[in-house]
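Why run this: before we spend reagent on co-expression, it is cheaper to look at a predicted model of the complex and decide which construct boundaries make sense. The entries below are exactly what would go into the expression plan.
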Amino acid sequence: MSDYNFAYLDEQTKRMIRRAILKGLAIPGYQVPFASREMPMPYGWGTGGVQVTAATLVPDDCLKVIDQGADDTTNAVSIRKFFENTASVGTTTQTAEASVIQTRHRIPEEALREDQILVYQVPIPEPLRFLEPRETETRKMHALEEYGLMHVKLYEDIARHGHIATSYAYPVKIEDRYVMDPSPIPKFDNPKMEMAAIQLFGAGREQRIYALPPYTKVVSLDFDDHPFEASKAPHPCALCGATGSYLDEVITDDAGGRMFVCSDTDYCETRRAQGHVGATQTEEAA
Amino acid sequence: MYVAVKGGERAIDNAHAWLAEERRGDQDVAELSIAQIREQLSLAVNRVMAEGSLYDPDLAALAIKQARGDLIEAIFLIRAYRTTLPRFGSSKPVETGAMRCERRISATFKDLPGGQVLGPTFDYTHRLLDFKLAAEGVAPEVPERPAAEGPVPHVAEFLNREGLIETAPAEDTPPPDLTRAPLEFPAERALRLQALTRADEGFSLGLAYSTQRGYARNHAFVGELRIGQVDVAMEVPELGFAIDIGEITLTECETVNQFKGSRTEPPQFTRGYGLVFGQSERKSISMALVDRALRWEELGEDNVGAPAQDTEFVLAHGDNIQATGFLEHIKLPHYVDFQSELELVRKLRREAGAAPMQEAAE
Amino acid sequence: MTPLLSVRDIRKTYGAHIGCTDVSFDLFPGEVMGIVGESGSGKSTLLNCLAGHIAADSGQVIFDTRAEGPQDTLTMSEPARRMLGRTDWAFVHQHARDGLRMGVSAGGNVGERLMAVGARNYGDIRHQAIDWLGRVEIAEDRIDDRPTTFSGGMQQRLQIARNLVTGPRLVFMDEPTGGLDVSVQARLLDLLRSLVRDLGLSAIIVTHDLAVVRLLADRLMVMKSGHVVETGLTDQVLDDPQHAYTQLLVSSILQV
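The model came back. Tokens follow.
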């Protein structure tokens, strides 16, 4: 792959993307249009995140790529390989070691630091899209802060189900100004978004970049009498015993057997290496 | 004991190897050459060039081979390659009036200067499977005559002489570039045409067909359809004048559509326009119909709410590379979002189940 | 007294065709102005120009805003105008489906304007929605139903509730009883009259139905071919029409 520039994209394109990122950081939560390039992976498979990562990486970076919280899911492997080939940067699966983390659908359990960048892959950047399909109209709604419709959706949820029935891609308001889609992370991860690291969001197909500087105020939309709740399966991890981490449900047999394990594989492995043990392990030992 | 699934990397490598084997197929059958694809599957090559936005028959043929004949996959390969190419400059507008036509027909006039030239078309073939082709096919002798001399004037120009058809004022501002700037709305006609010429053929066809069936009907006649070669000229700054850098085959379709006018303004026919790389007849006619439908606003027509009138709808969904990527991404793992939905549904079901019992207890 | 709305020389043309021209009037707080005329007279064009739905070619629409006093809404910034549109102004469309969200429950429809101006307590919003549904005679147990399941008259009443919930100071109504059965019209008119009286609403009502203005309007403006041909107190205009066209309008009603 030596025919390609460092991190695949040519320098002109990277500059264009960096300008969009800087603009995004200057106006947190605002969706900056950018001339997304065709990447050698399909739209919808992380082309926005990949372009943001490509424009962000420098040769001494250490990159971690996760999908659904795991380093070993096929798409994470594919993207990590892409940057190993085109940028020859170091890669890692350990959250603490990484300087840039590209993610799809999760925020790592371990708190991130000021010297880290978290890059999200975003399928639909527009939080108002499913309420109003027209781009010209949604841009106007953002410009004029007309967000009443967003709460109508939440109102309807409560009226029908007794609860806000949005469990992922839960909309947030940034610094009391822009309503933003946090990408399809579970709402369990929403409170983590007020963090020390820089957060960058790339939507390739929809040609949008947005960003959150460190310690930006991020509020999940709710009602005073139906406050936002970060929820997860009410179990400890079966492998490491963690009680505060987001869990995947794994079907273990065809008789309804199932277990819950950390979705963040690095977090789970680190805990197990430290000697933490979950219910399955103890049973086996016994 | 349960262990988290590992080995994504090995699985990917193995899948790629298997794919390569499947692509080759039975080793006892001779391998396809790029030249064979380019020469014998030329309409597939044309489509890949048109929707890939890159005029290079050899690369398109290679992409078709690599994609196992999946044309959208081939278009994707071409697009991904195209985006990495440096841009040296832009050509002068091509002169389709000077096209060396191999096909040129008009549905609006029986005969006209330059003549009706049927050319290599499927139009009047009977769609009967030709089993002779299954054996060794030898091309028949084709009768030849020298090409007519001189340029072939556009049909629209004849109508224009009487003021019967709208004219577009000459425009020298460079058109926007969809591949270098984010698509923003409202989109002007130059940008719409750019998006349409590389839009998916099936999508364009469906939309165009819908206008014929009454979803923003605009009564199109094919004023002219021409296919042939045009020269591509480029101004080289060091030289100070334009030189021909090559020749490409294009399909151009101009439709003559329902007229507009009022008591004070004399009625005139309006136009739709399609221009596509290679011999891509169906696509260029579709493009012209959709172009015309999208012009409802400037022509003072009613928006009847038809899909083909909706610029945002058409432009946002016509690109098959964007569409196929997003459609197929739902194959990727979504178990984190699915898990949160599971939790929610279980919780809501618990509460819905508990409520009647509670009522009964009271 | 400062007029709530002061309209000066509004003109709107469509090519060579005049939509409306030379329209000027003042509307004082608590006053209801009726605009009558047959279809094509320019009354709906005028209403849409006043409400900012279509851009007038020239003229002024000066509204006495709460914060900054009289302001020309035609030259106002779009954010300010849209803000006005969801706070102090309300617009009741002839067809309820143009003014409602058909995919959202009745409660959500009424609550939207409250949420748009910052209401964030579900219980309060719901409480107000129930209150307003009651005022427009829609049963409380229909609060979670969508307007698609409502009759035409109910949809229109829901649209009115949705508009009035934020206590607007000026209501524009475009043929509010049009398209409804006669018996349903009567009930709606009755409701509108009591709302106008109880809330002291200021309103501009466009209609071709003289019975509507007879019941609701303090003053009347008669339009023909884009021009105002006669103005005056409602009873005065209807009982003693001066302009030949008004006489024709009134007599055609009386003959029925």
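Strands of chain C lie at 5-14, 17-27, 32-36, 58-65, 69-72, 89-92, 170-174, 202-207, 219-224, 227-233. DSSP finds ten helices and ten strands in chain C. Bring this page to Monday's planning discussion.
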